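Quick one - inputs below.
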Amino acid sequence: MKIYPYKRLNRPVALRVTSVSLKLSDGTRDQLETTAYSTQQQSVALGIAGHIDWVSATIGLSATLPPGANAPDAAWSDLSVLAVLTDGETNVRTSADLTLDAEGGRDWSGSLEVLRDDHLGRASLAVYAVGTVDGVRGRSIAETDRSWIVDTVSDEPVRGLQLDVQTASFKRSSREWLQAYADAPWIVDASARVPTVFVNTDVEGVIGLLDSNGSGVDSKVRDLLVAQMATDVWTAVFHGAIGDLEVEPGGAPVFPTDWQGEVLREMLPDVFPGVHVEEALRQVHRRRTGESGWVELQTRIHYAAVRRADAAKALAYVIRSLEQMNRESET
Amino acid sequence: MITQPNHVPERLALLATSAVDPFLTEELLRGEQVHGGIDLAKVVEPLPEDDARWWVEPIRSLVEDAMFEFREDRTRADAWLAPRLHATLRLTRREAADKRLWNHLALAVAPDYVVWRHLSEPTVKKPERRVAAERFRGPADRQCFSRLWWAAELFRNGADYEPVEAACGNQDLIHSVLKKEMIDHRPTAQAMIRLLKSGLVTTGREVDGLSVAINAAGATLIYDILGQDRPRDPVHLRDWIAEAESAPPVERYELPKGPDEDPVPEEAVAALTSYFAELFETAPVRGRKPGD
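Output:
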């Protein structure tokens, strides 16, 4: 827990997205359906209507400050509420002032502009309540505990980072570098903008299997295959991110500001359970660059990847399907 | 020292990081030999043909001028090249965040510049001269060209590149501050430049001390309130990009002009500058004695 040298509110600000509209390049506006955002996932998907020519998005916001924010004997004055959008990939930071809905209330609302040209993938959105405390202006007295994610590409408001699956004939692909992997069923590219699996269509029937849906064994096998690929991806991404860590002058590693950081934050609690993610990152970095302990850590990294890929669930379903199939053939 | 590849493409393209390795040879990293260019051209993804921004010639000519002009002192090339690269290669941040573009620029278009600028000086510990691979393909604040472009983007004040020159003239500043989130706030970036230009902060240790102090205070302070920026209108940047087709080569002696965006509000920069100056007075700086 952080210690603050001034009085603050203990509870977080609650943030909701109330509307999303896109301004298109011909000057018209498209008000997006409510399915463009999810309060439960705390995410907004600006790609949902399929527009690729939008110029900016206006996101309507409503924030509720915790109790005590407007108490008459509060330690702060000049209360203001600020929505801040940040994107580590494009170094964008934009902010918007929210306004108080009703005198004496704790609800604030307003809107934030997201410019298409300013983002490649995902940005995060936080709200700060700011006031003057003990004569010091600009003190943050409460904030959202988890940022919302604004995905400028995705067509589904989900929080977790999705992998990109691409199919190609490795032998004949225009991406010539794939030819070197012609005898592999799939390979993982952790250096692309989002983690990507290339599936080799030279393996006959693999596309049919991957496209299978319904309740048959095929689709269960497909899920298991996808889980296996995902395990490979998250393992590769984890190693890639740890190998590229920026180190502060004092030797402390810094979280990457892009999706790699997102993945590390999700996986580290499984690699080093029970410690804060910042500490977990330091320990992993020390193990990798230090004299020992890196090999021992591989099991934990693999475990974190397996969990993130939902491999256990996929395996259980395949086994059940096989059991059912065997039972049916016996009777 | 190497020269440009035999085959230099006419247009910029995208080169995936996973396709880079065969061309990033030991010989290249030691500055001894470069690939021929033909094989590399086979693995790139092309950019739209109707866009004049992707012509390679203006960039090639810029880096050649830089190598000539700063042959005696190559680190000074950064301050010259950053604004001119930015004004030549007119990109949105969305486009600039694509590392494949920078990979292509460094490996296919101007590997000779990367080697010229970043080949290490021999030292007792490391007598062998070498370029770090991250200068060809690496994080945005390390890669040879993307670091310059982003420095120009983050430190320009609207159309004015003068602060960029100041920022890139101080290696410590672009080396350590470019990756920090705090300069994503325009008034903060401008206030830092003002402290640099006033001479209050100059050495690497002082720049470090200042940025650590700003970061630490920023844990409880919201600088957006202390120095309010104005909202940006995306039209100006789009117009500037559209003008790329008819734009003449960038000025070599004068500073070029950037996109016609509003500068950072003066009162915001002034407020943060005096606030940071106060912070810096009490900040721990290695090697500085209290009362200095």
